[in-house]
Amino acid sequence: MSNEGNFLTYCIEQYKFDKGMTGKEVIALFKQYKVLEYIFSSCDALHTAKAKYITKDIDLYIEACKAVED
Fold first, then answer.
1. Which of 1, 49, 53, 68 can bridge 5 by disulfide, Cβ–Cβ 3.0-4.6 Å?
2. Which residues of the chain have pLDDT under 70?
3. Predicted TM-score (pTM) of this structure
């Protein structure tokens, strides 16, 4: 697996743990808001961040997506 693939997996697992969600729930949420694409495009910046910051950044991204939908 590539470094980016490993990092995407790490982000999914960390988000799942932080939010108390199942893997299926996280994947569904991430697909709905194209979070994997966001993480991939932000990989260089995010891979140096702490796990809690990554979760918070993903939450902010999802909230921004929701705001655009409304």
1. 1
2. none
3. 0.90
